[in-house]
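Protein modeling request. Please complete all fields; requests missing the sequence field cannot be processed.
Requester role: graduate student
Desired output: 3D structure, C-alpha cell encoding
Chains: 1
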Amino acid sequence: DLHSFPTRRSSDLVVLLHWRQGNDVITKGKQIQFTPYKGIYVIARQYKGKTAMTILNGTSKPATLEVARYAEIIGKTTKVKDILTNRYYDLSKNMELKSRQSLILEF
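Delivered output (107 residues):
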C-alpha cells in the first residue's frame, strides 16, 4: 500500500538502529564483501561465531541467491532470521528474491 510505505520504512529504520546499537558483530566484526553476481550483492560481518549477512537484489526482476557461493560465511548454518521481519529463511537451498528485495540476516 502506497500510503503505508513511509511508515513501514520508518519502522524498519527504528528496528535497524536498535539492532545495531551494541551489536558487536556490526561494530567489531570482520567485513566480507562478495563480487556482485547476477545483480545480487552480498556483504557479511562475522565476530565470535556470529554473522550478519546483507543481501540486496539489485535487479528489477526476481532473482535466485545461489547459497553455495557464500559457503565460506554460511558454513553448515541452515536457519537464519531476517532482523527486520523476524521471518526465518532456510539456507540449505537457494533462495528466491523478489525484485529489489533486501534482507539483513543474522545467525
